[in-house]
Amino acid sequence: MSQQQAPEGAESVRDPVDSIAAAWRRERPQTSVASIGVVTRIWQLAKHFGDDRRRVLAEADLDPATLDLLSTLRRSGPPYTLSTRELAEQSLVTAGAISQRVARAERERLVTRRPAPGRSRAVLVELTAAGHDLVEHTVDQVLSREIELLDGLTSEQRDSLTELLRTLLGDVQEKLNLQGVSQVGHHT
Which of 49, 134, 145, 157 is 20 to 30 A from residue 55's alpha carbon, by CA? Predict the structure, then answer.
């Protein structure tokens, strides 16, 4: 028997999202509430995951934008160097945002920057040994924590959810004519 069809007099423990949908069905029966169960839960999960990631990063004395910069450089492979343009494209943020991120990370000696040989205005950004060590340690912390948060799902459920979310994200981006999302709630 579903939660919404609990016998009369029986106490039903309702998911708050189901309660929202039920209230809208009651108040506006002509309006479809089919999206609420998916979209509201995605927003709630995004908030929970974002808040938890910020907490983990705060414990490592690192902000999300700097982690994104260091991670992008680290994923590029040796020599862990990209142009500011490549960083902006891969991070899905503006050139101005990359410039600010690089300046902050350079002050903290996590990256260095230099002119690109043979390219008059291009700037190369390279991960320093300190930046490499920090990203190695922090990525392990972040990803381990996220795995812990997902351990309520089996491996098969995670794989299935991954595919469903990939399909949904691609379709929504196409409908909204978006290239990507850099951070939750901040589109490019």
Answer: 157
